Amino acid sequence: MTTIVQGIESIWRDGPPLIGMIHLLPLPGAPAWGGSMDAVIDRATADADMLTEAGFNAVMVENYSDVPFLRGSVPAETVAAMTAAVVAVRGTTSLPVGVNVLRNDPLAAVGIAAASGALFVRVNVHTGSMWTDQGLVEGDASLTLRLRARLGARVAILADVHVKHATPPSGAEIGATAADTWYRGLADALIVSGVGTGAPTRSGDLEAVRAAVPEAPVLVGSGVTPQNASRVLGGASGAIVGSAVMAGGVAGSGVELSRARALVEAVGSSWKSGATR
User: Fold this and answer.
1) Which of 113, 191, 203, 227 has the smallest C-beta neighbourhood within 10 Å, fewest atoms?
2) What is the CATH number of the domain that holds 149?
3) Contact between residue 153 and residue 113 where contact means Cβ atoms under 8 Å apart
């Protein structure tokens, strides 16, 4: 299989991706918007600095605090604010930077990445559909990949399989969904998460995805902590971590350096022991 990106190995050449989340403060237009983009940028760049110092090898910028989320396309002010934040983060760290536009706007994410120089995006629903608190969210891989090609953007697509905070349609099996997302949706990596933010990823789900698509990089998308890293990361190709590195272990509260360091140390020990694929 050949894509514009040639796989995530083009981004992470020195080991498995360990991606730290930057949960932005509420952005313009969101119900909880605080009125200051300076505050948004200051928090984002501080988080990026701490994740870099702690030893993460990538960061991802997300409009985590824009609840309640829109089901599909986000408005222009969200795109503008996220672009400003991603540019600022790229200016403060040499690590690869990614973008996730919640709840599911991969076109905005690819556009932001193309404009800012980000190297990867997360897509919550890339193929098929999921029942969420926003209603039915449907993926459209064809539009996302065509936009990427049209822009000439070397942006990797990290796609969720049965994304968290959602329920798959009746009869949908996670292995079959993973195969569709990889072979037909042409994702560059797959993400498997728990039922919600911070919830441990179920080992059975990870095993089912790996069995269905053995050649795909599979990232654990939630629930990794220093205490469970050796168990949760067994067989994974990488991880995305948010809650465990934030103040009080609370998503959206900003990165705490001591927590980020502890997580990197635990994950590094797990991977050195040969747990990753």
Assistant:
1) 227
2) 3.20.20.70
3) yes
What distance in Å separates the CA atoms of residue 119 and residue 136, rounded to the nearest whole number?
Answer: 28
Handedness of CA 70, 73, 74, 75 (dihedral sign): negative
Quickly count helices (H) and strands (E) in the chain: 8, 11
Question: Residue 220 corresponds to which tokens in the numbers above?
Answer: 């654990």
**Beta carbons of 31 and 70 less than 8 angstroms apart:** no
56, two tokens: 């993460």
Question: How many domains is the chain partitioned into structurally?
Answer: 1
Residue 3 forms part of a structural domain: no
In a domain, 126, yes or no: yes
- Give the pair of three-digit tokens for residue 28: 């313009």
Cis peptide, bond prior to residue 148, ω within 30 of zero: no
Enumerate the β-bridge partners of residue 62: 23, 100
Within-domain flag for 2: no
Which residue has tokens 């095993």? 207
Domain assignment of residue 263, yes or no: yes
Nearest to 15 by CA among 232, 166, 256, 236: 236
Dihedral over alpha carbons 119, 116, 22, 239 (to 10 degrees): 0
b/e sequence 152-171, b meaning 16+ C-beta within 10 Å: ebbbbbbbbbbbbbbebeee
pLDDT band at 3 (very low <50, low <70, confident <90, very high): very low
- Check residue 273 and give its pLDDT: 59
CA distances from 262 to 30, 132, 257 (A): 33, 33, 9
pLDDT tens per residue across span 19-38: 999 999 999 999 999 999 99
Tokens 């702690």 belong to residue: 54
Q: Which domain holds residue 137?
A: 8-272
Percent of the chain beyond pLDDT 70? Answer: 95
Residue of 51, 63, 122 whose CA lies nearest to 93 = 51
